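can u do me a favor
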């Protein structure tokens, strides 16, 4: 691996490898991942480091422009000011909704350009996905209009206004008066985040609204209640993430994530994350121990933080959670939630150490806090029980391996139609990689994306169902992960499988007029809490759904990534009527919104 060149398997004949069936092509790359990860060039790590420094520097700049905040050399005297936390939340929300945070760059297979976000959302004609187009007036259609661009510009402006505002609002704290941002400066942003989400749920999710928008709403509370509500929100984030990891497949996530870590150590140590490298790539006892240990930390330590009245015990708990997030940060998890982990490190220090005396009994309006916290808890519980109805982000099932996923099989004619009829800034990952490294290396690196998916338990399901979805000629299709379809078409991808389900299939079919068989998609839902089943659907972009059923998690976790040709599937007893996903193809002069 060089500064610019990716690390590829040794003794690897690309010409012969290319002629093998897909599962045989994936096998050596999963084995290579187990000891070398994605093979990321060092230049990529440098890009992420520079971006992380820029995020921290930008946040400090906005904080220090606030009148009354001293120089950085005097940070010990002002770091607990209310406006510091407020502007940290606002800056992080703005950073994310610009597309600069989660889903950025090469480790999300976005290369040219490395950013989506604002490049798409400021461009009329790109694809948008409304949240409830059949229920909410004025949200139908899937084409971004000048109105959508204006709403997005308004959101960016609404985030910038309080970031540049002084702290003029006087309130009572436990130890005297404090100054915070005027609520008047926060109202536009509080309204625009959900409003824009009704017309484009991608932007709402990219803003990480389940965290930063909820924290923003707490800024309208009295200061004491704001701090307590923010503490409760953080505890729910940790507990939601921990609860979602009580399953058979979280150890798969740990083994895949740590084997991709540049600081994990030697190849020998990475191999120990798997049962018997290279033949058995199921998680080893070490991966399972790390997974269950991390889950226990996420449950127990936040409880200590919430209830502790002893400053020394609180300090230990704060240090434990700081190390917890530093560990995740150093592993560079795919999807790249780097800034989120930095923000969590700051928040646990600010809220639980800087305001350690602020406990639940100090709340002045506990009913108001409950009004904010209870709905968050309800969505978290409902999202685990009925994951098909909720984003994994809203239900706080973070990086647990339990995501809705999809695998798309596209014929050459379908690729041509997408290139011709769909407005986008970049092509699929292989097309971007081809411009950087040439055809052969691009093919191998695109398959490393398959290897990442196959090493997770749900990858066994996707590749096991692909021949059923695409038929005997499935090897002739161009196969791409739904994540990267969403990344190219919507401008953002961060593990949210509901962004590349029937709604996106229909939006593309509407533009491209696919013929039957040109696009076949495997859709695999998350595992409900307490169940061993994951529901699947097989969809033709022209004719709609043609099969649904379920797979068993126990079948997937007990197989190797490449041994899925005979994976048991359990179709629904009575086939459902076809679900149409395609509308008549548009003719010149028509608009998608009018269709």
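np, heres the sequence
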């Amino acid at each position: 691996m060089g500064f610019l060149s990716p690390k590829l398997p040794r003794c690897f004949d690309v010409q012969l490898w290319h002629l093998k069936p897909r599962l045989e092509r994936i096998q050596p790359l999963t084995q290579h991942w187990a000891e070398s990860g994605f093979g990321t060039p060092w230049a990529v790590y440098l890009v992420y480091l520079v971006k992380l420094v820029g995020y921290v520097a930008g946040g400090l700049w906005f904080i220090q422009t606030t009148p009354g905040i001293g120089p950085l050399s005097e940070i010990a005297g002002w770091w607990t000011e209310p406006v510091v936390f407020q502007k940290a939340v606002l800056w992080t929300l703005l950073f994310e909704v610009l597309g600069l945070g989660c889903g950025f760059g090469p480790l999300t297979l976005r290369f040219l350009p490395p950013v989506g976000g604002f490049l798409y959302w400021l461009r009329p004609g790109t694809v948008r996905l409304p949240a409830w187009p059949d229920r909410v007036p004025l949200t139908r259609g899937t084409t971004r209009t000048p109105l959508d661009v204006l709403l997005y510009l308004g959101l960016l402006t609404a985030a910038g206004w309080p970031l540049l505002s002084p702290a003029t609002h006087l309130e009572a704290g436990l130890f005297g008066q404090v100054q915070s941002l005027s609520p008047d400066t926060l109202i536009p942003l509080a309204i625009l985040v959900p409003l824009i989400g009704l017309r484009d749920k991608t932007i709402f999710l990219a803003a990480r609204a389940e965290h930063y928008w909820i924290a923003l709403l707490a800024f309208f509370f009295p200061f004491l209640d704001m701090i307590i509500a923010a503490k409760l929100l953080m505890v729910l984030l940790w507990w939601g993430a921990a609860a979602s990891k009580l399953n058979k497949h979280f150890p798969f996530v740990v083994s895949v994530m740590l084997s991709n870590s540049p600081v994990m150590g030697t190849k020998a140590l990475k191999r120990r994350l798997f049962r018997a490298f290279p033949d058995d790539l199921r998680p080893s006892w070490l991966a399972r121990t790390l997974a269950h240990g991390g889950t226990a930390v996420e449950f127990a330590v936040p409880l200590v933080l919430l209830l502790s009245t002893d400053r020394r015990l609180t300090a230990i708990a704060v240090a434990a959670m700081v190390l917890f997030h530093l560990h995740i940060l150093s592993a560079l998890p795919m999807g790249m939630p780097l800034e989120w982990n930095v923000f969590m490190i700051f928040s646990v220090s600010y809220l639980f150490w800087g305001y350690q005396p602020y406990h639940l009994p100090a709340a002045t309006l506990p009913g108001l806090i409950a009004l904010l916290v209870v709905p968050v808890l309800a969505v978290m519980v409902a999202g685990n029980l009925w994951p098909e109805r909720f984003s994994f982000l809203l239900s706080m099932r973070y990086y647990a391996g339990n995501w809705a996923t999809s695998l798309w099989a596209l014929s050459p004619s379908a690729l041509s139609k997408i290139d011709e009829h769909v407005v986008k800034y970049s092509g699929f990952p292989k097309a971007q990689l081809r411009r950087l490294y040439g055809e052969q290396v691009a093919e191998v690196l695109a398959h490393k994306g398959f290897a990442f998916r196959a090493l997770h338990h749900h990858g066994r399901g996707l590749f096991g169902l692909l021949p059923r979805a695409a038929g005997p000629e499935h090897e002739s299709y161009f196969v791409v992960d739904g994540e990267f379809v969403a990344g190219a078409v919507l401008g953002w991808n961060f593990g949210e499988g509901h962004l590349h389900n029937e709604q996106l299939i229909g939006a593309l079919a509407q533009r491209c007029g696919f013929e039957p068989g040109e696009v076949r998609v495997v859709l695999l839902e998350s595992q409900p809490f307490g169940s061993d089943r994951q529901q699947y659907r097989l969809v033709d972009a022209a004719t709609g759904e043609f099969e649904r059923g379920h797979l068993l998690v126990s079948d997937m976790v007990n197989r190797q990534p490449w041994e899925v040709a005979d994976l048991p599937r359990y179709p629904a007893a009575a086939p459902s009527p076809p679900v149409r996903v395609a509308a008549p193809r548009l003719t010149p002069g028509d608009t998608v919104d009018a269709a």
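The chain is about 50% helix and 10% strand. hope that helps!!
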